[in-house]
Design a protein that fits this description.
This protein is of the alpha/beta class. The protein has 10 helices and 8 strands. The chain has helices at residues 8-11, 38-46, 78-94, 109-119, 148-153, 168-177, 184-187, 193-198, 232-245, 264-280; strands at residues 18-23, 65-67, 98-103, 123-128, 158-161, 181-182, 204-210, 247-254. The two termini are 26 Å apart.
Length: 282
């Protein structure tokens, strides 16, 4: 199984612009687990997706998309799993490829950012999420999915979009540090909000998409759904703007917890990943 079900001529590693890394891991998931099944569901949906991108008017897969084997989970804990992700993504980046990581829980994004930062010293991260994920520790671990943005902030600047749920600890920390957060209600009142988000990013950007950034009416298949989220056009409009002002050096799509018999969420995730690839090479 490879992303898009594409033919061998465009799925080999050597000529690929993109390398897809499926990471079926959800050890620290809370509330509803199941994101370990997300990568397989996204890959399966991608094989039923039209490979001609109607917006970009091209077949993005011709830039080359190689899919790696599923990364085996490390049961010792999230710290070790993050290191494992970092090692694989580091290899992808050193070969001049753009990493596309399919989760799995959000904690894995820390490993991706660590690897990208080595090559792109001025890297910044666009964090699309319903939750701030800015706790210093959660359930005793500093590497929980609930701490991923805090750990990434220790690596490089982070801009948060779609946030509509946080603890008091997180709210105080965000206020103290002056961290830029763009919740959905603010975006809807702000003309050309996409440009204002991009003003806070650097020329090299990693995009981390927790699928609960979408409203649960559109994306119910997440472990921690929150009402009042973004829609498809909001997210695509922002990614389009980012591609016009910065270089997308890699991205992840995480936290899909498939619902049996409901394929729309994984199809959205697959099409989002494919559209983001298209913008990354635009």
């Amino acid at each position: 199984m490879n992303f898009g079900g594409i033919e061998k001529a465009f799925s080999g590693f050597r000529k690929a612009s993109f390398v897809v890394l499926p990471v079926p891991y959800d050890l620290t998931s809370t509330y509803q687990s199941g994101s370990r099944r997300g990568p397989a569901a996204i890959l399966d949906a991608s094989c039923n997706m039209e490979l001609y991108d109607e917006e970009l008017r091209r077949e993005t897969y011709r830039a080359g998309i190689h899919t790696l084997p599923f990364l085996e989970p490390d049961a010792r804990g999230p710290r070790e799993m993050i290191r494992k992700v970092e090692e694989v993504v580091d290899g992808i980046v050193r070969h001049g490829k753009i990493p596309v990581v399919l989760g799995g829980e959000h904690s894995i994004s820390t490993g991706c950012v660590r690897a990208l930062k080595k090559k792109y010293p001025r890297l910044s991260v666009l964090h699309l999420d319903a939750h701030a994920d800015m706790r210093d520790r959660y359930q005793g671990s500093p590497f929980s999915h609930a701490c991923v943005a805090r750990r990434i902030l220790e690596i490089c600047p982070v801009v948060h979009v779609g946030i509509r749920s946080m603890s008091r600890e997180e709210a105080l920390f965000i206020g103290k540090k002056g961290i830029r957060v763009f919740p959905p209600d603010v975006l809807r009142k702000t003309p050309e909000w996409e440009k204002k988000v991009c003003e806070n990013l650097t020329e090299d950007v990693y995009i981390s998409v927790d699928l609960d950034v979408f409203d649960p009416s559109l994306m119910p298949a997440t472990g921690t759904p929150e009402p009042g989220g973004l829609d498809w056009h909001d997210v695509i409009s922002l990614v389009r703007e980012v591609a016009g002002t910065s270089r997308i050096r890699g991205f992840d799509v995480v936290e899909l917890s498939p619902i049996p018999g409901m394929v729309a969420p994984e199809f959205l995730a697959a099409k989002l990943a494919y559209r983001m690839m298209g913008y990354a090479v635009k």
